Amino acid sequence: MLKYPKGMRKTESKSPLKQSTSNRGIALEQELNQTNQYYLDLNIAVIHKKPTPIQVVNVDYPARNKAQITKAFYTKPSTTDYNGIYRSRAIDFEAKQTDALTLFKLALIHEHQINHLKAVIKHGGIGFIIIRFSSKNETYFVEAQKIIDLYYGEKRSIPYTWFREEAYLIPFSLTPPIDYLKVIDQLYFEGENNEKR
Amino acid sequence: MLKYPKGMRKTESKSPLKQSTSNRGIALEQELNQTNQYYLDLNIAVIHKKPTPIQVVNVDYPARNKAQITKAFYTKPSTTDYNGIYRSRAIDFEAKQTDALTLFKLALIHEHQINHLKAVIKHGGIGFIIIRFSSKNETYFVEAQKIIDLYYGEKRSIPYTWFREEAYLIPFSLTPPIDYLKVIDQLYFEGENNEKR
User: Fold this and answer.
1) Using CA atoms, how far apart are residues A33 and B25, in angstroms rounded to an integer?
2) Which of A77, A78, A83, B141 could potentially form a cystine with A92 if both were Cys, beta carbons 3.0 to 4.6 Å apart?
3) Is CATH 3.40.50.9100 correct for A17-188?
4) Which of B43, B46, B82 to mutate to test the interface with A (most CBs of A within 10 A)?
């Protein structure tokens, strides 16, 4: 459906994501934040990353009205990382990246995220997962229902070839870097006026 | 519209919220969390509080795979605290409480929250603010547009009497404690089947 011309695909060698392995997850997050900021600035959508949940144990007040947290722990999130509103539809998604060449391990998705996406679909939202194969510098849009079905199947990983068939390659652009709403336009608003931006 | 019978109103003396002033804000948050958990458990809606945004500066690893944050700061949120999906509509709101008897100070609402609620309305979501007068133990549902209009007006506070006229008293119940979706049913789904729960 969203066949992406081979010649336009961003080549690996030029990607800043390739500079360091440890930066890859951060790069995906940064690109999504840039994308969401672009959508917000241009009044296209209002989608934000949720803050990382942290349990605060100790707080000091070295100065008046200046709280400094001195002991805290990361806690497990009960939802996905991103949500918001686009064309009156609730948007909810998780983003994952993998270094693997030939498969995506389902263990990278947590059960609470699966449960949350099930609830999102049930209540009428658009739920999906953005998956980046950093080795190939390809970023896919995967409908949540497809991942949910696979999650409860027998296999513990999804082959890369599956993404080529069943997921949607998000076209690379500079502004915004990950234009995932283009895929949503095609999947959920086909036939409507998608040229307004 | 949502006239709430006087005799049913929860009396102040019985309220656990009255036990301590400092607990009041926490009590409102806890009651909203209980309410949202109830909605989730009964498959009525999927609405969550966003985590408090924290900027992490230092992390120690006292044990393998056990990260302990040793220096961090609270940062300003760019959105409201609560959002989710109900009956295919995106839900987005902020909750505030005041000890004042006769007015609500608009300074309790931050400009970024007003801007966010404007974006929510623009993109087709249901935006509102839940305001508790803890001295009266009354919790009101206020449509975001009304607060936005007042926010850009000349007055810096809203008299309590305004809430009696223009806002909707959320009926008190034990499960859930703050059944704000009842107000949304009346305001946004009037005439539809609201008896399904």
Assistant:
1) 31
2) A83
3) no
4) B46
Tell me whether strands A126-133 and A138-143 are parallel, antiparallel or unpaired. antiparallel
Would you state the pLDDT for residue B26?
82
Which CATH number describes the domain made up of B19-51+77-188? 3.40.1350.10
Pick the residue of A26, A37, A43, A46 with the most B CBs within 10 A to test the interface with B by mutation: A46
pLDDT digits (tens, 9 = 90+) for A91-140: 999 999 999 999 999 999 999 999 999 999 999 999 999 999 999 999 99
Contact at CB, A85 and B68, closer than 8 angstroms: no
> CA A166 → CA A56, A150, A188, B34, B64, distances in Å?
42, 12, 16, 39, 38
Euclidean distance between CA atoms B117 and B92, whole angstroms: 8
Predicted confidence (pLDDT) per residue in A44-79, tens digit: 999 999 999 999 999 999 877 789 999 999 998 889
